[in-house]
Design goal:
heterodimer, A: about 270 residues, alpha/beta, Elongation Factor Tu (Ef-tu), domain 3, 5 helices, B: about 300 residues, TIM Barrel, eight-stranded parallel β-barrel, four-stranded antiparallel sheet, 16 strands
Chain lengths: ~270, ~300
C-alpha cells in the first residue's frame, strides 16, 4: 500500500545511524519480519528514487487520553550513506513522508523446537529486531552482532530486553570480541546440540561467509539481501540476485524486492 | 462538461493519451494493486525476445541528479512464457496492452511479430530498435536508417496489428530514422528511448554500473525528448508517442503540444506506481480548467 506517514521521532542512536518512528495505517500491522518499505525522501527530483529500508519494528501507541484512537506506527533503523539518507536524518517530528509498503517476502519463522541464531552486521540489524521479537515467543534466540567499531553495534539493549542472548564482535576490538562476528557464530555451532536455523543480514562478505558456514554444517539459513532498486514492486529488475543454478545459458535471476529480500541461502549463488 | 480525452493511436482507441513505457510497468499485473489499469490509455509490456534473457550483472541501476541510469540488459521471460503466464492476465483488463519486443536478427524480429500477431489480447506491437544496453538488442538497428527500415519492413509483413517503432535518441539526426521507419510501414513512432550515459564511483575509480554504460531516463531528459518529438512531428504523418521524463500532467501536455498524440510515462511509475493514473486525471482537470473540450485540439498546437 502507499500512504503518507508522519514522523513521530527521528534520533541518532550511534554516530551515523538513525532510528525513525513514523505513523502507519491500521493495515500496516500485517507487516512480517524481513519486509521493507520504499521511502520517498522528498517531493523534489533530487533525490529522484525512493530508498528501501528494512522494517525495524511495528507497534501501536496506546492513546494518552481516553477516547483517543490508538496510533499504529513503524520504525526504521538507517545509516546515513548519501544524499537521500542525509536528508532523511534532517527531518523532524511532524514532517511527513510518502511510503510504499510493507513490501517483499520476509523471514520464515520455521519450527519452534530449535535454536535461532541471528547474525547482523552493522545496519543489517535493521530487519532483525522484529524477527527476534517474534522468534523469542517460541524459541531460544541468540544474536551475533558485528561491526568495524563499537559505533556499528546498534540497539543491543533492545535485543537484550527481548530475552535474546547477545554476542558482539568488532574488527577493532572496541566492543566485544576483536574479530569477525562469524567467528563467534562458529564457536556456538561447535557446541550446538540439536537443530538450529540461522538468520542473517549485513554486508555481502559477511553473508557469503555465513552462507558457506551454513552449507558446510548443513544448517538451514535465511539471508536478507540489499539491492539497488528503483521501484520495489518487481518492475525495474534492478535489484536481482543470481539463483543457485544461474548461468548465462540458464538464466535464473531472483527479484530481491518481491521474491526476497529474504532467501534461503542455498537458493542463491554465492562466491566460491 | 467532461473534456474528450480519447485519441486514436494508429487504430488503437485510447480512452486517454496516457500510456506506460516498456520496462517500467512489468507485464501490467505488478501494478494492479496501485493503479486502476482501466483509468489509463494503454500499457506497454516489458520487452520480449524469442528466448528468455538473463540480462546484465548487477549493479544495474544508479541514480543521478534528476534521473537514473539503467542497464538491465533486456531481462525477460521470453515469448513462450509471456503467452503461457502473462497473457491470461491481459484477458480481463479492458485497456489495450501493447507488446514491446526485440530480436538479434531481422528474422527474429519478424518471427516475434508473427507470434504476437496471433495473440488476441495484444492490441498493438512496439518494436524496440533502440535498447542501448545490449550489443545486439536493437541499437544496431536503431542507429542505421537502412537497418531500421529492414526490421520495420519485415515486422510489417508479419503483422496486421498496429506497429509502433520505438526510436533511439542516440543518433545524429532522429528525423532521418523516423522517416525511414515511416516509409518502411510503421503505423506510429514512439520516442525517445533512453540516452546512453555513465556514472563513475570516484573512490573506487570504477564505473558504477557493471555494464559500464546505461540508459539515462527521468525528468533530466525531458527537454531533449521534447525537442526530438517536435522535430519528428513536423517531418512525419504517422501519430507520435512522446516519452522522456514525464512526471506530471504539465509535462505530458507539453509533449502533446509538441506534436505527440499520446505519451508514455516511464521512470515516474518507479517512484510513484500510480503516476500514470494520476497524470491522466490531472490532464483532464487541466483541460476542464482551461476550457479545452477535446484533447485532440492540443496535438501539435504549439505556437512558434
Amino acid at each position: 500500500m502507499q500512504f503518507t506517514s508522519m514522523i513521530l521521532s527521528n534520533a541518532e542512536v550511534s554516530p551515523g545511524y538513525w532510528r525513525m518512528r513514523m505513523t502507519a495505517p491500521q493495515q500496516f500491522a500485517s507487516a512480517t519480519p524481513g519486509q521493507f518499505v520504499m521511502v520517498r525522501v522528498s517531493g523534489a527530483i533530487d533525490p529522484l528514487l525512493r530508498r528501501p529500508f528494512g522494517i525495524f519494528d511495528v507497534g501501536v501507541h496506546a492513546p494518552v487520553q481516553s477516547g483517543a484512537v490508538p496510533q499504529p506506527y513503524f520504525e526504521m533503523l538507517y545509516r546515513v550513506v548519501g544524499k537521500g539518507t542525509a536528508m532523511l536524518s534532517a527531518l523532524h517530528e511532524t514532517d511527513v513522508l510518502d511510503i510504499l509498503g510493507p513490501l517483499g517476502t520476509g523471514f520464515n519463522l520455521g519450527s519452534p523446537d530449535e535454536e535461532k541464531l541471528i547474525v547482523g552486521g552493522g545496519v543489517g540489524l535493521a530487519p532483525l529486531y522484529l524477527l527476534a521479537r517474534e522468534l523469542v515467543k517460541r524459541s531460544p534466540v541468540r544474536l551475533f552482532a558485528g561491526g568495524r567499531t563499537r559505533d556499528d553495534i546498534l540497539c543491543i539493549t533492545e535485543f537484550e530486553r527481548l530475552g535474546v542472548e547477545c554476542y558482539t564482535a568488532t574488527e577493532d576490538g572496541s566492543l566485544g570480541e576483536c574479530g569477525l562476528v562469524t567467528e563467534a557464530l562458529l564457536r556456538r555451532l561447535d557446541v550446538l546440540k540439536g537443530r538450529a536455523t540461522i538468520y542473517a543480514c549485513g554486508p555481502h562478505g559477511m553473508l557469503n561467509a555465513v552462507a558457506a558456514t551454513a552449507e558446510a554444517r548443513k544448517i538451514p539459513c535465511q539471508v536478507s539481501l540489499e539491492g539497488y532498486m528503483a521501484c520495489g514492486v518487481g518492475a525495474c529488475l534492478g535489484c536481482v540476485a543470481p539463483g543457485r543454478g544461474h548461468s548465462a545459458e540458464t538464466p535464473d535471476f531472483r527479484c530481491v524486492c518481491t521474491e526476497g529480500p529474504v532467501f534461503e541461502s542455498n537458493e542463491l549463488k554465492w562466491r566460491d | 462538461m467532461k473534456p474528450d480525452m480519447s485519441v486514436n493511436l494508429a487504430g488503437i482507441m485510447l480512452r486517454n493519451p496516457v500510456m506506460t513505457a516498456s520496462g517500467t510497468f512489468g507485464y501490467g499485473e505488478e501494478f494492479a494493486e496501485y493503479v486502476n489499469l482501466e483509468s489509463i490509455g494503454a500499457f506497454v509490456t516489458k520487452g520480449l525476445s524469442l528466448k528468455p534473457r538473463a540480462g546484465n550483472p548487477t549493479p544495474r541501476i544508479v541514480e543521478t541528479p534528476g534521473g537514473m541510469l539503467n542497464a538491465i540488459g533486456l531481462q525477460n521471460v521470453g515469448i513462450d512464457a509471456f503467452i503461457a503466464k502473462k497473457v491470461p492476465f491481459l484477458r480481463n483488463v479492458n485497456t489495450p496492452a501493447i507488446a514491446n519486443f526485440f530480436g538479434n536478427t531481422v528474422d527474429e524480429y519478424a518471427e516475434l511479430a508473427r507470434r504476437l500477431d496471433e495473440i488476441p489480447e495484444v492490441a498493438g506491437l512496439e518494436v524496440n530498435i533502440s535498447c542501448p544496453n545490449v550489443k545486439q538488442g536493437g541499437i544496431v538497428f536503431g542507429t542505421d536508417p537502412g537497418c531500421a527500415a529492414s526490421v520495420v519492413s519485415a515486422c510489417r509483413a508479419a503483422t496486421k496489428k498496429p506497429l509502433i517503432v520505438k526510436l533511439s535518441p542516440n543518433v545524429t539526426d532522429v528525423v532521418v530514422m523516423a522517416r525511414a521507419c515511416e516509409d518502411a510501414g510503421a503505423d506510429s513512432l514512439s520516442l525517445i528511448n533512453t540516452l546512453t550515459g555513465m556514472a563513475i564511483d570516484l573512490g573506487r575509480r570504477r564505473p558504477v554500473l557493471a555494464n559500464i554504460t546505461g540508459g539515462f531516463s527521468g525528468p533530466a531528459i525531458k527537454p531533449i525528448a521534447l525537442r526530438m518529438v517536435w522535430q519528428v512531428a513536423k517531418a512525419v504523418k504517422v501519430p507520435i508517442i512522446g516519452i522522456g521524463g514525464i512526471m506530471n500532467a504539465t509535462d505530458a501536455l507539453e509533449f502533446i503540444l509538441a506534436g505527440a498524440t499520446a505519451v508514455q510515462v516511464g521512470t515516474a511509475s518507479f517512484i510513484n506506481p500510480g503516476a500514470a493514473q494520476q497524470i491522466a486525471g490531472e490532464m483532464e482537470a487541466w483541460l476542464l480548467a482551461n476550457g479545452v473540450a477535446d484533447i485532440k485540439s492540443l496535438i501539435g498546437a504549439l505556437e512558434v
